[in-house]
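tool=predict chain=A
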Amino acid sequence: MNNYTIQGYLDDVLYSDLIVKEVPGNSISRIQQDIKNNMLSFLCHYDSIEFRKAFFVLVEEQSSFYEPFDVPLNIRSFVVTTVRNSIIEYLFSVNYHEMEMDNRMDESYVKVVLMHACEYFNKCDFSLLCSEAKQTCTNDFYGDLPKKYPLAYAALVKIGCKKNNPIRYTKVMPDTTFSFLPVQIGTDDKQFVSKIKNGISNEMDADDLIFLRHIELEEMACVYFDCFKMLSRNVDKVMKFLEFILQKDAVFVTSNYYITNGYIEKRLPILQAAHNFDEANRKFLNHDGLLQQHRSVLDSIQMNNFASTTGNFSMKI
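tool=predict ok
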C-alpha cells in the first residue's frame, strides 16, 4: 500500500516549507486548500492522456527546465500545474500582503518548494491519487474547461499529442460565439481598468483588454507573449484569452508557439520561460528552431518596433 497522499504532501511537506519562512497559519491553510482543489480537479482527468498532455503544454516551458531532472517530466509538469500555478504566487508577488506577510518572499525559494513537491509525488501511485480525486473532488473546474473553451482546448490537444511540426488540422467551429469584453474599451481607457499585480488572478488587466479589443475590432491580428505564464498562471484566464483569439481567426504567438485555429508551429527545442523582461527581450531576438510563419511574424513585430516594457505585443499582420 502506497501511503503517499495529497493530504500527506500538504500537511507534511508543504506546511514545513512555508512555516519555516514564517508564513502565517491562516495563509498556509488558504494555500493548502487552493493546491488541494487544483490537484483533485486535475487528477479527476489525469488518466486521460489527451487531457493531461493538453494542459501540460501550458507549463512545459517551465517544467522542462525545473530540477530535479531525474524526476519524470510528467511529475514536474503536474507540480507546476497544481502547486506553482496556485495562490502560492501571492507570496512572490507585490500582493504578498494578501497572505499577511510583511515582505515579499524571495523568488528563488519557489524552486525549493517545487523540488520538494516533485520528490514527494515521484513516490506516489498516481492511480491511487486519481481514484481518491474522483471520489472526493467537489469542484471539478478543470473538467469544465474543454467545453467552455473548445478551440483553445483543441489547439492544446494538437500541440500535446501530435509529433508532426507544423500541425495542420480542420478548424474547430464553436457552437456559440465567445465574448467577455466590456461594451466599450479603447486605447485611452487604461485608467478605467485595474492593473492586476499578481500572476494568478483570473481578471483581465488593462493591457489584456486593449489587446483583445483591437482583435475584436479587427484592428490587430496577432498577440504576442513571451510564454503562457507571462499572460497568466491562471488556467481559466489563459484558456479564455486563447479561445477569444482563435474564434476571431487571429494569431496567438509566444517565443515557442505560433497558434491559429487549424495551423500551429512549435519551436524545437523549446526555450525556457523568461523570468524577467530582459530575458524576454533576448528570447524575442532568438529565432533558432522556428518555422517559417513563426519566424515571419516575429520579424514583422521587430521591424514595426512593437516592443513594450511589458514584453507583450499586438499588431496587424
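Confidence is low (pLDDT under 50) at residues 189-197, 305-310. The CA atoms of residues 214 and 221 lie 8 Å apart.
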